[in-house]
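Suppose a colleague, Dr. K., hands you the sequence of a protein chain of 207 amino acids and asks what its three-dimensional shape might be. Before reaching for any lab equipment, you can write down a predicted structure in token form. Begin with the sequence itself:
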Amino acid sequence: MSVFLVSVLMNLYIRFTGLTTRITIFGEERLPEPPFVYVFWHSRLALLSYSHRKRGVKVLLSTSRDGEIIWKIIKSLGFSCIRGTASKPGQARRAAVEMLGSLKKGDVVAITPDGPKGPPGVVKKGVPYLARKSGCPIVPISWDTARKKIMKSWDRLVLPLPFSKAAVAVGSPYYVPEDADEEKEALKIKHLIEEQDERASRLLRQI
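The predicted structure, expressed as tokens, is then:
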């Protein structure tokens, strides 16, 4: 199936699911003033692309076919993007420079730290590097929904199903120390995201 057709169908699906799902966002009062960096697992892209639409968030996406599909899906939802792939040093450097520039201008940036190809649930060291160099906080975010399908993709993509309820959990901002060890900070950020995974599941039971 072509990139265009997949993106059109997925865009329609996300809009329909979002419209028919009662989405409750918890913790937005914790958000700092921009600029800051949202971090969440690649598997959690679907619902967040609806719940955080039209907020001017700039998303880091790979230059792969999957990245192109995601870009075509989310651009009509009010997102902008930065393209780059960690496995290609030249692209990775350009993307890092562009993200630092965006944060300097006061933008909100979103990163899936285990993307674009995994391993799933592993934070790459580029994320704490970006936070350390920019001085901007990281905000972990996740969600859960009462009705979902877990796909057989590398990231175990979580696809929300229509006519349901969903809880989005926003964590407290976290500042990476200037003299931080990036490997240790990557593990810390992993735990912060996992805390929001668990929190979203707990909050779902309350709505």
